[in-house]
Amino acid sequence: MARIAGVDVPNNKKVEIGLTYIFGIGRSTAKKIVEETGIDSNKRIGELSEQEISSIRKYIDSNLKVEGELRKEIGLNIKRLMEINCYRGYRHKNNMPCRGQKTRSNARTRRGLAGKRGIKRK
């Protein structure tokens, strides 16, 4: 397995798909990385030479925020919203959906199980 940005990327996947295992890299970003580094997109991760893998690593390190750095930034953004008491921050604090979804009948993954809140059985 190739190790890129602290993540073990599976050898049997094509390069574009394998790069999406890294948090912060989706399909379009992976396609851009492959084009910029000049790697054949039909190759699998296991077929890449050490030089090609290092060029991918260098591109990601210099141009993108991924994994821990990105998670930290997202966490700080949410914390800032909660501190300034804006609507989205309030919804994060109270463990409710932040993007306008209805909560009367849905939002179970965010609010918890139905048995905890509701009518008790006799």
From TrEMBL:
Assigned keywords, A-Z: Ribonucleoprotein, Ribosomal protein, RNA-binding, rRNA-binding, tRNA-binding
Record function comment: Located at the top of the head of the 30S subunit, it contacts several helices of the 16S rRNA. In the 70S ribosome it contacts the 23S rRNA (bridge B1a) and protein L5 of the 50S subunit (bridge B1b), connecting the 2 subunits; these bridges are implicated in subunit movement. Contacts the tRNAs in the A and P-sites.
Example GO molecular function: rRNA binding
PROSITE patterns for this protein: RIBOSOMAL_S13_1, RIBOSOMAL_S13_2
Ranges annotated as biased composition (Basic residues): 101-122
GO BP: translation
Name of the protein in its database record: Small ribosomal subunit protein uS13
PANTHER family: 30S RIBOSOMAL PROTEIN S13/40S RIBOSOMAL PROTEIN S18, SMALL RIBOSOMAL SUBUNIT PROTEIN US13M
Family statement drawn from the similarity comment of this UniProt entry: Belongs to the universal ribosomal protein uS13 family.
One Pfam family matching this protein: Ribosomal_S13
Region (Disordered): 93-122
Top-level taxon: Bacteria
Subunit-structure text: Part of the 30S ribosomal subunit. Forms a loose heterodimer with protein S19. Forms two bridges to the 50S subunit in the 70S ribosome.
HAMAP family (UniProt xref): Ribosomal_uS13 (MF_01315)
